[in-house]
Amino acid sequence: MFFINNKDYKLPNKNIPKELKKYINDWFKDVVIDKKIGNALEQLFSEDNYIYGVHRTTNIEIADKIYEEGLILTGHNDSGAFSNEIDLDLNISFKQSFTNKEWDYAKFLRDILSSSNYKYALGNDVGYAMIVKISQDKVSLNNGESKIINNDILYNNGTNYILKPEYIVGKIEIDSGNIYESSNTEIKGIDLTNHKIK
Q1: Three state DSSP letters for the chain
Q2: What is the mean pLDDT of residues 167-171?
């Protein structure tokens, strides 16, 4: 285990190749991650047959709306009939390679932590990582590029395609690259007050 800040969350890295562990030391040096939230994210990511991604925003009102109503897929507002050419990568960062789960998780966690740097977080160093989780029978991921297999993950509001809210499974507040306990942080299906499955 790699101890982030030597006291909080333990990042699993037993199976990460030695040549990649140096990146982990660089990425997570001096980072603080609340233990309950870190464990919950690790638990979420441990489920097989899913792809996980991150959408970043700097505004809590927008984050709340995405969490409750879904993610508008910008760049596809000329819509019309559904097309499997819709590119989720325009709005969601996917980093899984499916060759080493611990390495994929480290990249996923780094993406989450970068949310406070997104568009300079409007100068306040606080950002929000929206966690996307989609089963592999609905979206394929190959070399970091996503392709929609099943369009029932989307709906059209007449103007935009929207990723349905059930695929937005987390809202994580990031403060200056750290994850502290916060009332603005939620993960669907997990009680973060004691980290138990609801």
Answers
A1: CEEHHHCCCEECCCCCCHHHHHHHHHHCCCCCECHHHHHHHHHHHCCCCEEEEEEEECCHHHHHHHHHHCEECCCCCCCCCCCCCCCHHHCCEECCCCCCHHHHHHHHHHHHHHHHHHHHHHHCCEEEEEEEEEECCCEEEECCEEEECCHHHEEECCCCEEECHHHEEEEEEEECCEECCCCCCEECCEECCCCEEC
A2: 97
pLDDT digits (tens, 9 = 90+) for 90-135: 899 998 888 899 999 999 999 999 887 765 444 468 899 999 999 9
Alpha-carbon span 6 to 45, nearest angstrom: 22
Size (the chain), residues: 198
Closest CA to 184 of 39, 37, 53, 23: 37
The domain segmentation of the chain, as residue ranges, is: 2-197
Across 72-101, average pLDDT: 74
pTM score of the predicted model: 0.87
